[in-house]
Records
---
Amino acid sequence: MRRHLFVILSIFLLLSGCANWGVVDKTRMLMGTQVQIIVSGSGFTRVAKTAAIGKAFERIKEIEGLLSVYDATSEISKVNSFADVRPITVSDDTIRVIKKADEISKITGGAFDITIAPLVNLWGFGPRGVILNKPKEREIHNALRLVGMRNIKIDYARKTIRFLRSGVRLDLSGIAKGYAVDCAIETLKSEGIKNALVNAGGDIYCIGKVSPCRQWRIGIQNPRHKNEIIDTVDIEDSAIATSGDYERFSFYSGVRVSHIIDPRTGEPKSSVPASVSIKAADCMTADAFATAVFVLGPDKGLDFLSKVASVEGMIIIEKKDRFEAYRTDGFKKK
């Protein structure tokens, strides 16, 4: 079985409300995780809501077909196969995601970097599968030479990608799900839906409300006990995404090693923090920032978030037998 199919959901939806507002709730397996779409509100029949949800699922499937590194026929796989030979033309969706990733890489000082694929594969978290032994320092050093946005040339006008060094590879896993969620929400809006939630393995975007008197309430999972909620947050017309060391990990010499790798050092993050949750205006931003702040760590992560407009966050740290949560002002409990 492929490990990427068994990502533990980092956020639970809490559907307690004052009234059932004609909720339609559907789930499909897409992008290596369970994707849940819920539509609420009056003015639409159950059939109409179900049809709108179906179109949103198809849009996510379309994005998966473009951006998945696990699909050998995807657009990003084509880029990885041929961009070190010639410029590869990509779709509007792909160039939009790459542009956003480039912007976030710059403002995070490289803590988020889509050229991280050589390191992801080296540590056994990519399509090539699990490794048995920790990589050697020489292997990490060689992979690091291939990491960095300096190693790719992007022509936004022509929508082309060209690798400047042989062996460079892209991995959009830290941003693709967020973008797919955004696209699903736009599809629902185009169908006239005003109240909905899309949840792709913990990358969540909510519009409107779940009922006339209640916002969508999201429960954030305890990093060590998947059925326990450590905090809740109300969401309306915005997104939230969580990255954690519990989603996918390995052990080397008794040390838990997260699938989240620091592009600057070549080493996976371990122990601190346990999870990072980010609220933003769109899910693509929340998704990428959650990874970047996890890489930056608690102190630098909170300092970074304090300087970024319209983005809030919560970092959960494990200390012996307890957890401590650190929040930006906009994420603090009311």
---
Amino acid sequence: MVEAALPKVKIYATGGTIAGASNSNSSTDTTQYSAGQVTVEQLLQAVPPLKDIAMIESEQFTNTGSNQLNTSILLSLTKKIQGDLDSDSNLSGVIVTMGTDTLEEAAFLFDSIIDDERPIVVTGAMRPTTSLSADGSFNLFQAVSASISSSSRNRGTLIVLNDRIGSAYYTFKSNTRTLDTFQALEAGFLGTFAGIEPIYYYQPARATGRQLYPVSSLPANNNLPSVSILYAALDQGPAQLDFAASQGVQGVVIAGEGDGEADRTWLDSMTKLMNRGVPVITASRSPSGTVQAGNNFGNGTTSIPSKTLNPQKAKILLQLQLAKAPLDMQAVKDVFKTA
């Protein structure tokens, strides 16, 4: 009797805490450590049972903390993943290991570009490899398990950590330290795990507002348009907005108060930018809820509301849209209308 071949997956390692190691040789140190110290080969060696569930290819794409990544590096990785999926029909899915600081933005970028029914699973860790109860190895095991499951298909990019499966569109990092940092407060998780078996709560679906930007629509040099995120707070006037405008940014996202608002003194500068063809997106610094059009902010004249997207994801969406259609303000409005 011929045994069935194991499913094939590919892991792209980029560093992060999942590849981190303590600087003090302490097993209880979860703060003073360096990210990106362990190679993907070492990560795989620490999880021997993986060889029993999948044939694994791996690539050390980079090895650094995710706060050292940028959209140019991530676009290069995205194109690499899309190319590998297109050229290898035997791949069941792919996994990206990375730091959690910018994981939600990277996953959102992958989800907005990669066009394939096979799962792209992004995972990381909150404790370095040298820590007691380090979470990276089991997160990696569950990520591989999710990537080979037929139930994971047609769901877009998935975020897998701490026994949870989340949509890249809605899931975000909510805590600087805890293992359950990744949450989807409004939309909820897509599923969980029983051991290593993924269990989904719903049939496959994509986020309502998800936009697709094929690789062909992206810059060959991987440089996306410049978009700044500005933070609104008490006593915060429009000086930072005026400075951003003077630096030639191509778009602005405001992490606003409540429903995407700021001091009324911002309105004149916002309107001038919009009239110049520079989109201003009003998002919220609050961790959940939607941002809608108001009388002063988000009315289409002073700014465009981000709807369900937080500032960092709104920035990625705006960059992708500006790369596709640089001078089309109406297209930006249309894209965010369903975000």
---
Amino acid sequence: MTRTGKDAASRILGVAVALFPPDRRDWGQAMRAELAALEDPAARRRFALGCLRVALTRPSTLRTLGYPALMLGALAAAVWWSGRIGYGPLRWAVLAAAAALLAFVWWGRRPGALGPVGPGRVPRLARACGCMLVCALVLAGAASVASNSNPGEQAAVGVPIYTAVSAGYLFAFLAVTSRATAHRGAVPARTLAVGGGVGGAAAAIWVAVLATARPMPTATAPLIALIAGAVIVAAVVAPTSRRASGRPLTGRAKDGLIAGLCAGASAALLAVESLTALATYGPAAMIPDLAPVALTRADDLAQSRSEIQDPYVAILLLGGLLAIALCLSAIRVRRPSP
């Protein structure tokens, strides 16, 4: 004797079956048939819950449900954190910026110029790292505007600038890691690896300089030279790799351009965020005395921690320009002719 009524076990199994991808719907049919053969209510519930556990732990299900949950969690965190901002227009500006950037991330999951992410570990890792870097930039920007003594100016100018720069970086990371379409080819994984690797190495060199100097240097000219060197190295290495040797000359030139822009943008962003972390949390011995007229040593240190970050705004904007160029170059990658 079989049961076909819509009891709790049937509803639970219905949810589990709905979570399976189309190529696994035959699993759902088999589960329904096995559930129909069970009579004991407890056994039916145990079986349905087991099927639901299997469906929820599948990687495809985790990706499907994880993104919405992550987006909602991030938005809820932004609403909670912004409660400490007393000036209403500034709080709403911060929330609008957070919602817009989260919408762009969601857009990156849809088929188009920014998504979805390409297959393979390199594009997925590059996109994840890029999104985390942008997240760190947004958090630092939000903390900066929230602590500023002129909230009206920050709501009208500071938040839009931070949002535009963050969106530029985000668009670049999404576009360069998106999968191929009928009209556009994907950026090769080796190009992403070279660009990200060279950019990360350049940023690591600068972090080593900052961490070992006492106090930290205030000039940014050496960093600009380091970023330029990263762009050149990546642009030269990517087209000459062994796997790229069989590609047409135009394809190799495009690989070099994208790798160079990727290296420059990632090096600039990593260097700025590293400096921000060291200036905010580093020991006092690392901080140069940039406010000698301060009334107390504590005021001198606090003002110096803030002022040492000012020259890096230009580095952040430079990286933003490289990111915009990277985004446009990645979008214009054409699928090779068969």
